[in-house]
Amino acid sequence: MDDWIAELRRGQQEPAWDLFLDGYRGLLFAAIRHYVHEYDDVMDVFTYVCDELRTDDLRRLRVYVDEVEHRARFSTWLVTVVQHLTIDWLRRRDGRSRPSALARRLPPLRRQIFEGVFVENRTHIETYELIRARDAPALTYREFLSELRETYRDALADGHVRLPTDHNGGFTELEIAAPVTDTSEATERLNEALMSLTSEDRLAVQLYAIEDLPAADVARVIGLPGAKAVYKRVYRALHTLREYLARAGIRKGDL
Amino acid sequence: MNHPGSDDVLNFARHDGRSSPDVAAHVQNCEACAGEVERLRSTIERLRRQATPESTPAPDCLDDAAVAALAGGEHLGEDRERRLNHASTCAYCRHRVATVARALSDPGVAAEIAATKFASRRPRLSVAFALASAAVAAAAVLFLVLPPVDGGSRGSHRAPTAVESTPPLIAPLGRVIDARLLRWGSMAGADRYRVTLFDTSGHVLYEAETTDTVISLPDTILLTSGRRYLWETEARTGWDRWSASKLAAFTITGADRR
Predict the structure, then answer these.
(1) CATH T-level assignment (fold) for domain A3-94
(2) Closest alpha carbon within chain B to A213
(3) pLDDT in tens, B138-148
(4) What is the CA radius of gyration of chain B?
(5) Domain B169-252, what architecture?
(6) pTM as predicted
(7) CB contact (8 A) between residue B71 and residue A80
(8) For a 10 Å CB count at each end of chain B, is N or C smaller?
């Protein structure tokens, strides 16, 4: 048993915290640096994470320790808690994002581009660096540019984008006048098609195609032996979806 | 005709046909593969357009431990099916699982997790001995994580391990007098490099592939003094597997280069 857990079980919160921090400081910083990169931000998030973990006599740590059967390894759980708290910290600092109707419909990468360029007023390069650092380390600038062009095209095709003009007053709301198109039936058919898959296949195809997660990571989440097995499943699932939609009379462009 | 494997075709379709010149070249000349890529691409595009992320959790959403179990592939209990089913129908939880899974694959995070596992197996020792053990543990982690280095000593700092998997850009960087040559460091396992030069509006000014780690810009490329340029290098580490460097910028301070 770890020393800090023994101290915690003896009710010795301070020594338990010191021992915990000695053992996991490196992991806390590494997990925080995965999401934020500026030195000051890293230190602020670290302080916030520590404050939250110490709250109520180390309540979060005690809840984990007191579980009869741990559902996840402590280090994996800790990385998840750090993700949660880092997002909290970012929302507190930047305000909760309220994606527009268009942003909600965009694929994840284009949504991030949309938010970076239009909502946060970042330059294209800043947006690229931010996305690459946070979520897509393998994203090339060429790929980013292609997605950027698509994002502009989506924004313009979908209605009109009123770009922020008052830089001093801060950005209030990005107005997208989205024409209401009747795609509800097609969307419903796609949902039905997805629900016709097993939960494993559905999650595999979503993680791979929508979240853009590398196949090796998808394999770990789903519990498959490796990337090859993921490719096989996703390939088969996409084929099933396509067949289902074709039978339902949904064609390219209906969604 | 030797067709690419289904995994390469799928990857090609997922990335909308970019960054895969080998598959792209094949698809251009193969009607069957081109049709398959288009079918996969349109289905993926439908899924992406339909995906609606939730910004707030619902009461029945997965808690931190359940997200951790899924992301870490540690979900062997009775609730496994329920968690998988929830994540496959809840965009908020699915995105959290994906985000944590990505973090767990971050080399910096993975190295720290390995180090904590090593440390937690250690018996309680005197402070001096514990410090020595920690050094050995760190060395062990470095040994496991660092790629082999030819003819040089291993670095003592752990951070660079995370960036060894991309080709390091050497020059030009920042303000330079001339930028006739683009130079980068070699990467273990790479047999080919692709270098791309952009202007700041994102237009590709020059692109070339080479087995060398330096390339000379042709005279037809005009670089204007005072203007900023961007470049990146991708290293091929397998059949249609490319690893991109960071994006670098430089500005010519001398006379225009013709």
Answers:
(1) Rna Polymerase Sigma Factor; Chain: A (1.10.1740)
(2) B98
(3) 544 444 444 33
(4) 24
(5) Sandwich (2.60)
(6) 0.60
(7) yes
(8) N
